[in-house]
Each structure stands twice: as C-alpha cells, then as structure tokens.
Write a structure and sequence with these properties.
Radius of gyration: 17 Å
CATH class: Alpha Beta
Order of helices and strands: HEHEHHEEHEH
Number of domains: 1
CATH topology: Alpha-Beta Plaits
Distance between the termini: 36 Å
Strand order of the largest sheet: 1-3-4-2-5
Shape: globular
Helix content: 40-55%
Number of strands: 5
Strand content: 5-15%
Length: 208
C-alpha cells in the first residue's frame, strides 16, 4: 500500500526483555535484543517487522541454548483495520493510510506497557509484551481494543509465544488466531485479502 513519507508518530524505544540473562550470555543477548538500526515504518512511525522478529529470535535463541523456556514467554497482540478496502476504493489510498495511522495510535494507547509496537505490513500491526505478566497485559490490551467504540474498527487477537516457535510461525499463528476470533464474532466473514477459515475455530492462546 502507498503511504505518506512522513511518520505521524515517533518510533517507541523498545525496552529490553524483562528477565535475567546469564552472565556468559549477556554479550550475545545484547547483540540480539538491542534496538535495531532499521528506520521506523514510514507511514506509522512504528518499528519495522525486522526489529520485532529480531527480538523474538533473541528469546527463542536463549530458550534453545538453555534447553527450556528462557524466562517468561512474550505475548503478542495483533490488530488489522476493518473496512480498509472500502476506504481505499471510495477515498483513495490517502484515506486508507489515514485509517492505518489511526489504528497505530489506537494500538499504542492500548499497549502502553509493550516493549515494541511494530507494523508487519499493510494494515497488520503488532504489540510485543515481555516480562512476568506479559500474557495478562496482552489480554487486557486486546480486550480494551475490542470493547472500545473508537475508530477505526479493528480485528484483534493475542497469543503467548512458545519456545520452539520461529518468529514466522509465531506471527502466522497470531494471525490465524485473530482470524478465528473474527470468524466466531462476525459470522465467519473472512478478513480482507485472506481466505475464510473453516478449521481454525479451536485455536486459542498458548498456555502461559
């Protein structure tokens, strides 16, 4: 999607993962978990997808080295915009871009304690929560977004990461869960640009 050249929000600094790191692994961990040099998303000012994936890989790497889950698992909230296609058709790409920027502001407001808020691409935005209460905070943020009448309307889902998941698999599961929730709440309507789901109704957040 075509977007504005000027971000409406500055990139939120990403906080380090909130759990202790063994002394022998601190240097490697800092290389993986430190803020990425990638520029912020040009449309929303959020972190780019690459930065989010770097943080997820850092947690996965240390879980694998430890042979068990490393600290508390991160949790993620995904939102995308309802009605984006119609906005683009009726008002042009500038109207759609305005909805995406508004969605980013809504997510930033609901996910104030998130360590990273990123744009995956298109209208898909993700907040990453870390620390001992990550799952509870992600759930609260998702609930707040669903209950709010603010515009634009958003589809929302959240999950807790599992140590064996790659970032790509985790983000795919996050999207599938958000889609299954939308199907149950909206009579099975498919998300724009995605096929309808018939076998995803049982998907739920991973146990913390």
């Amino acid at each position: 999607m075509r977007g504005s050249d000027h971000p409406s929000r500055p990139l939120r600094p990403s906080a380090p993962l909130a759990h202790p790191v063994p002394a022998h692994g601190r240097a490697a961990y800092r290389r993986r978990a430190s803020p990425a040099p990638d520029p912020p998303d040009h449309l929303t000012g959020l972190a780019p997808r690459a930065h989010l994936e770097t943080r997820l890989r850092a947690w996965q790497h240390h879980s694998q080295r430890a042979g068990r889950q490393f600290g508390s698992p991160p949790a993620l909230v995904l939102v995308d915009v309802i009605g984006l296609t119609i906005a683009n058709e009726q008002g042009g790409f500038s109207a759609g871009d305005a909805l995406i920027r508004a969605a980013a502001r809504r997510l930033l407001t609901a996910a104030k304690s998130a360590g990273c808020v990123a744009r995956l691409g298109g209208d898909e935005l993700v907040a990453l929560f870390t620390g001992s209460s990550a799952g509870h905070r992600a759930q609260a943020a998702a609930h707040s977004l669903r209950q709010s009448a603010a515009e634009p309307a958003l589809r929302t889902g959240w999950i807790v990461a599992e140590a064996a998941e790659t970032p790509a698999h985790l983000l795919d599961r996050l999207y599938r869960h958000a889609r299954s929730q939308a199907d149950r709440a909206g009579g099975g309507k498919a998300l724009p640009g995605r096929p309808a789901a018939s076998s995803l109704d049982g998907i739920a957040p991973a146990a913390e």
